[in-house]
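User: Can you write out an input/output pair for a complex, sequences first and structure second?

Assistant: Here is one pair. Inputs:
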Amino acid sequence: MSNAAWETVIGLEIHAQMATKSKIFSGASIAFGAEPNSQACAVDLGLPGVLPVFNQAALVSAVKFGLATGAEIGRKSVFARKNYFYPDLPKGYQISQLDHPIVGRGMIDVVQEDGEIKQVGLTRAHLEEDAGKSLHENFVGQSGIDLNRAGTPLLEIVSEPDIRSAKEAVAYARQIHALVRYIDICDGNMQEGSFRVDANVSIRPRGSDTLGTRTEIKNLNSFRFLERAINIEVERQIDLLEDGGRVSQETRLYDPDADETRSMRSKEEANDYRYFPDPDLLPVHVDDAFIDSCREQMPELPKLRLARFTDELALGESEARQLINDRATADFFEATVAASKQPRHAANWVINELGARLQKADLGIEQSPVDAEQLGGVLQRLADDTISGKIAKQVLDALWAGEGKSADEIIEAKGLKQITDTGAIEAIVDEVLAASPEQVEEYLGGKDKVIGFFVGKIMQASKGKANPGQVNQLLKAKLKR
Amino acid sequence: MGSRCGVDPTTIRQALMHQKTLTELAIGLEKGEFSSVELTQHYLDRATAHASLNSFITVTPDLAISQATAADARRASGDAGPLTGLPLAHKDLFCTEGVRTSCGSKMLDNFISPFDATVVSKLGEAGMVTVGKANMDEFAMGSSNENSFYGAVQNPWATDRVPGGSSGGSAAMVAARLVPAATATDTGGSIRQPASFCGVTGIKPTYGRVSRYGMVAYASSLDQGGVIAATAEDCAMVLGAMSGHDAKDSTSIDRPVEDYRKVLGADIAGLRVGIPKEYFGEGLSNAVGERVLAAAKELEALGAVLVDVSLPNTELAISSYYVVAPAEASSNLSRFDGVRYGHRCEDPKDLEDLYKRSRGEGLGKEVQRRIMVGAYVLSAGYYDAYYLKAQKLRRLIAQDFTQAFEQCDLIVGPVAPTTAFKIGELSDDPVAMYLADVYTLSTNLAGLPGISMPVGLADGLPVGAQLLGPHFSEARLLNVAHQFQQQTDWHQKIPAAFA
Amino acid sequence: MAVDNKTVIDMAHLARIAVSEDDIPKIASQMGKVLEIAEKMAAVDTDHLEPMAHPLDAAQPLRVDDVTEADLREAFQAVAPSVDKGLYLVPKVIE
């Protein structure tokens, strides 16, 4: 949203469900889609007398996030109770963190659409328990409460209000989304609610450095909705202010069907959450040894990997970024390099050739019918001139279609080996030149473009197997002007 | 008397079983003088006979007899432990699977827990027999047991007087010998004060020694389970079996449990017993003060050395406690909302109505008041001045004890300023009752262990003294109380109507 | 500190407790007395003190991430006031 008079200010709160086996404070499963309340144990239900015990894997996940963003790790983090009544909140309080979060300040490098990098400050990331769900259908005048989700570990990732447009917000959210999946702490499934975004949106006159009144748009569960909701909310706020009205601080909901945001009346009243340290839980101590053990469990961080790809493998910056954005892609690329020793080719083929085919088939790289070993084999043959680039594409297609197990097998079976025997190529060249006296005249008369005609004919005659370099060399030698 | 002739001496012996201590009953079971079923039936009969005391919320005869039968079978197979077959009651905030756990509240009048508290399962595994659930102040909030949905409990020494609280039922039933022991909890004196009012022995261990899992919370950072019985030796037996680390309670301490009975009898010569001057000042009745000091002299006669110590912030413990405890309670009791269990109002018109009426109807006045005070001290704008300040004072109070324990090995003092007061006497003045907790609150704020033992009678009412020690000094406290009880007979006195 | 009726009404609402109009003045006076005790704290200098949330200076133990709980829905819902199709029922939640 660009507007000459107004500047948009956005901060995001992202709730990422940690991909643990059990809940943050109980031993119940967090698997999605179970029968209602079949995964809500005594602790999750807040039965009288139950007590929480903290899940180590949730802590490890949060520390990994802190390491991945270069943020401060809270050496002594404290769980606090956020008190409010709601049917999907069984205890009447949510266990969260306030003053001493597990992850403190950090900085995220966000690659935007145009490739520019924008730094967005990370205010904090804290652990908390998810609430249950209220279901409103099928019960006359009543809601049904399912507490299976209650107690699922969440990492709430809070950004500084550094974001200036819906597009930037999406780029930031995508970056975080990629990161949590990269370090394997969240499955990122937005349909199932594993990754949810709240946007705090305000506007101010351009040039002003005070913040306007913000609204919070809750529970945006796709990047498209995130962008749309922010744009619509910004428009709404601009209209309000330009009509002499005021923005009131409130929670709003984006309704994709109506394509509008509206006030959530039930949550509108000013809440007094009465946070205080949870007396059932003790301070969580994180020492160097613990952090080291988390670091050991981490994959190489995107930032370091990027540097390695550009420095050691001599990839271009933008190429390298495309590869590291998604861990599976980066891993696939590295395996392809290992199999082929051809980093430049590998980058190009993983991004472009394989990438296009995957996109067309709507497949993730994990589901690629051609594995890294196979692609590496193709690139090896390309590099040692056994096949040309064009033939290599054919080999890739054949591998994709399952016509053979390896590039060599397909090259052999289909007789695609490039002709590098100079004598054989020369015979074809001579044949083509002899059959095209007019074109030869034209070329000798100065029409350079005609060379393409000869190459085409020669490749046709050789069924694409003639080495293009050799063909060019021979042509030029024979047609010396 | 001729009419007595022909009565089987065994029958007489069995009719007087309740006069024995838990320790003596254990020996009786071991020697086969009576079975657990006989013993259990005897106590069940007494519970029925003295129902007017109102010390039980629930009596569980069927469960008790089946557990007693199992205990006898276990003994027959040679598998009995020291507690196997001995009856006890649980304070009604320890969750018991299949048996109502009411917490003395209308809110949970219909609540049957689907699981056992860790304390209940540990004592069950030791073979103890549950004869029922003890009355208590609602959600353990009170010092008189008058705040129970099930009515006030009478003090067996004077039925127009309170037994103390909140573990009033536990103390009264042990004093009346309706059970040889009962579990109890202490958040600000709730084991020690009723033990003192009823002339029995009660120990509150170090915070974290006994698991809180399944023990319905009042104030989580102060609550601690313990036991009330006739003697320190009896307490040692039960406490040993209740204690220990529990992975289900994050605040439970992973540290081996001492053999509390084994150290009973250790010489106390040279032991430094601190007398805090703040515990003997204004407000303490002469009758109580004299008897507590006499008990200190008795310890001196046993070789202990009396030293003067100071706990300068004693009175501020009242302020700190009555902020911290209501704050935690206001949050802990939010789960009682009429949605998943417990009382739900008739025909709620909307969600707000469901919450407000269910809680308004289900929770008693004292509980409501503490919840509202708790909400207030945590609310925006008041947090720092009340809650945070109270937590800082808590540190100061804990430091008082640390300094005092540099000069002494334990502290002796009164439990309450007076003996048991009359039912109704203070019930309209909650604050006056709060002030009477002055000697017990600071122990909980600091997480220290304390034992209350009978040290005399004043106008026919029991007087108790408490011994306080550093963290994890339960064995020392039990031993000193035991030594005292070897020299005195206050713990053997049974109110006449219940002998 | 004197507690006014509005404070009682606010706190009763925060705590979701229905109180009757008639009881409010009495509750206000009793709350006021309790807070008066609490206010004695103000006289103490506590600047140098760390707040104490727990009696023992211990660290949070960590639980191994295993699923240990079976489905006990039937037992749990046996004590529930209103359930249907495995869901707890409440008056309609309006969002």
